[in-house]
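haha ok so turns out i had the wrong file open the whole time. this is the CORRECT one, sorry everyone. sequence first:
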Amino acid sequence: MPPAELSVPASREAIRRLQSERKRAAVERALQSPFWKKRVPKKIDFQRLDDPEVWHQIPILDKDMLRALPDAQFYGEFCHASHDGIAEFWRSGGVTGQPLFYPRTFRDIEVGLESFARTFDCAGAGRGERAHVSFPMGIHPVGQIYSRCAGSRGITVNWAGAGTSTPSPLQLELIQRLKPTLWLGMSSYALHLANLAEARGVELGSIKRIMTSAEPVSQAKRDKIERSFGAKLTDNFGMTEAGMMGSEWKEDEPGLGFRIWTDLYFIEVLDPKSLEPVKEGEVGTLVVTALQTNNVTPFLRWSSGDLVTYSEADDERDGKKAGPFSVFPRIRHAHRTAGFFKVRGVNLGHQDLEDFMFRHLEIGDFRAEVLNEGGNDILRLSIEIRRGTDRESFAKTLSGKVKEAFELAPQVVVLETGTLAREFEANVKAARFLDRR
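then structure:
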């Protein structure tokens, strides 16, 4: 059982009380930082932080501001020195820019372990299950924190790590031998393992639940992974600046969004331009204030760059309380930050293309590249296809369908199964879309 102060609150009113207390503590703690002393108005009314007009006096913090700080300034001015001791460092997420390494105190880790463990509860995974963890085990925290917190739920763990540390063929062998019921990893790596398993005739039938994080999971991608494994997928949401923030809940319809631990993280969904709160259901930028994991890194009103919609979510069904996680609201990604290619005047959204590709049952995995050859931009789709599919015929059919859907005639290259997995394994997140012009 988690410590009482980290247990799931009994009601939304209890969450509001916790937020009120912890927001004030978060601001007071942040003012120990020279960085925030310069930014927070000196006359801010601590008694009225629940009033949006007062709370919005605290300026937004974003990635560009942090990246502009040299290490000495980040550790000496942004971080504050009064804490319970540094336990470890967490590498900032993302795939662009110079990464930062955030100090985490022993109290931060205690909270972090419980916030990750809640995702097991949301997925319906518990005592007696056996987990195969394929998240990276290096300087990114997700793999090692998941492995460390599983014991609090009575779950056995194989610390496999990503394909860079445990090659994919060995991962399949371990799955066959140890018969895990739960697989955890990036959604892209789930696809790679499933494709390799099919090519080698390996059964993945012991796995009943899949837990992913760190990458967008569209409905088409979810369907493909669940079909390949014969298992239910639960996606989870977090960020290094805060911790694991939420999870899809087994009582909700798949794809509705993440239940967010609002007792641990105060969230706002704001208009990207005006920075005013948007209405429920409207797309806005996600702003997060860590209420517990702020003992050395004071992330106040952190703009993560995620575009989401917010829903209070009904907490009762048929007159009965739906369960412990019904007290939390949901956010759902708008999938508008995944980027796009502009090829010959056509805007090609990455998410749209991924959905299109994974709707084809013949495709195991793919990579999209834009190149310039002979003065012309071309879209190259490198694909892996299922056994028994006619390579030449399918490539021709796919090319025609892409042209019909996106007004671009691609160059389709059919690869041997496992080629993309070997190339992707070296990356924390799969480089599925590449602009090589």
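The domain at 1-334 is CATH 3.40.50.12780 (Rossmann fold).
again sry for the mixup
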